[in-house]
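Render Glucans biosynthesis glucosyltransferase H in 3D.
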Amino acid sequence: MTQPEQNTLPFQALPPEAPLAMPVQDLHAAPDMEGRGRTPSTSPATIGLRRFLVLGSALALTAFGAWRTHKVLDANGTSILGVVMLVLFVALFLWIALAFTSSLAGFVSLITRGGLGLGITRSGPLPTLHSRTALLLPTYNEPPHRVMAGLKAIYTSLCETGQVDAFDVFILSDTTNPDVWVEEEAAFLALRAQTGGENRIFYRRRHNNVERKAGNVGEWVRRFGGAYDQMVTLDADSVMSGETLVRMAGAMERNPGVGLIQTLPVIVGGTTLFARLQQFAGRVYGPVIAHGIAWWHGSEGNYWGHNAIIRTEAFAGQAGLPHVPGRKPFGGHILSHDFVEAALMRRGGWAIHMVPGLDGSYEESPPSLTDVAIRDRRWCQGNLQHVKVLPTKKLHWISRMHMVVGIGAYVTSPLWLVFLLTGILISLQAHFEHPEYFGDTKLLYPHWPHVDPVQAKYVFIGTMAILLAPKLLAYIALMFDRATCKGCGGAIRAAGSVLVETLIGGLIAPIAMLIQTSGVLSILSGHDSGWNTQKRDDGGVPFGVVVRQYAKFTIFGLLLGAGAWVVSPSLFFWMTPVLLGLVFSIPLVVMTSSRDVGQSFKKAGLLLVPEETHPPDVLLKTERAVEEDHGPSLPHDALRALRADAGLLQAHAAMLPAARKPGDPINPDQLVGLLKVSEAPSLSVLEGQLTTKEKAAVLGCAEGVAAISRLPA
């Protein structure tokens, strides 16, 4: 094998270290405010009134709804099931009432062109930066070519602003698959060569990826954070324009009390029907929701873990996460770290703001309901884990509310199921009691015991109106934005898209309810979610897999429908929307996971978004980068890839960690792997002997790499 050429300058994958202390926070002690006041200077002067209007209106609507529901259930007295149903109704109605009042506030903010603040502008001259910002892209077994394509687009866009010198890029790998790891290194070297960013683009792979993404970012802060005023966190599918990054960094310079600025990432790149539904909903409904919460959250905003800029000093000083007591799934390191990091920074006196009015921030959506369910299971565990963080001393009440809302996002699914089953039990009770409430008359709404059917109809209509009002508000707001409306296909096609999304989303909703309910029950029974790579391509889900995963939902729907029909045909027809989604869950999942079906809707002009009809420049750059060849074609196998490219082998060896010292922990996989390498007669034989962990461990030490390079093919 050809020996690598000696360079005049040693290869450097990382800049000089600039350590920054990041102490682990004590959740039971008051934070160190370091002289900062409890109320940030960037908090809106009218924030108290805003919160009173949004929260007060939601409570008033809930009280009115509870009174009307009480009139429905208490027409002829009270019952235990009626009381249970009333309590559940209040809990669930409060949830949708808050979404409605928040969306109403967002509607006003959106049509008045709000949603910025902090001196940020959508257009005009860019601020001149005097600080340094690091772009952090944590990655875990992601396709390297796609990751580097996004980074290339971001870097090129930054170069066009003329202020790329204010930014450095860090690829923070937690990849465990050795083949993907070496492919990452090759793609990193190609990215440097293509962009000329040898002094600004860096790569680091952790060989002990503890605490997942939070540990990955925390390790960077402790090693390199001292050299950067801000850091921008990205996901593997994140894309941000250079102008947006410069405007965000400028806002951080102008507002030294701000700890974090969160953008509203727009979902793009959807090809399957499911992804396109998510994409359209996020693009049309998302701004109304985001503008609403930004309006009344003020300086007590939240953090979504990516596409946000963070003051490194604030993060290091306040966001060192402790382990929560107890066993998994509730104990251990904090999974949904972003909510907690934002809450701790705000607890320390730093302002947390959302700026949904700023364009140029993008992400992708999982391609199917199955992929969302896998991701949702992990999020569910992380959000439920926040129960142990809620008692943290000196948390702002809005920060606690963020966590309660996050918990409620999953708890409401089993509550909806219990609410549904309680209604059936009430109807069943009526079926066996006298007088006969379910006669031969065909009614849309069942006569429950102690139920006024006319009042029930009004409550149902009112509830549905409040539930669907945010979508109507979003559509009206779309009419005020001609460019966005045109990008969605025009007013008529946009209306058709809203109708399609509402209908298909309504059918998917009961399936999602059961998926989340099973996730909650699994977590409560002690099952950990693990750490799975998120699927981002549009590969369809095999039909057999869909049948195995969703047959139980179909069976449940059939049993539920049969039970409803036995109780009363009226109840059966009343439950039809729920039953249809469950009974047809298998074909529904197959259809929504299909790329061909998704593209058919696109050709029909439905579910369009401006980012695909008139793509922004940074997304065009990303598409071109994805299509381009990232250097020489190498074998997918890591062992053969290193042997095929001397430059890659040299760079790989230079990026290895220091050799183990006596007393350091022993890696059993490395010991076994090195033994197998020493005994293998050839590389071909060795390939079939090494496990994935052994292969990664051997490639993670200089001894192993040298031994492999000496083996005959």
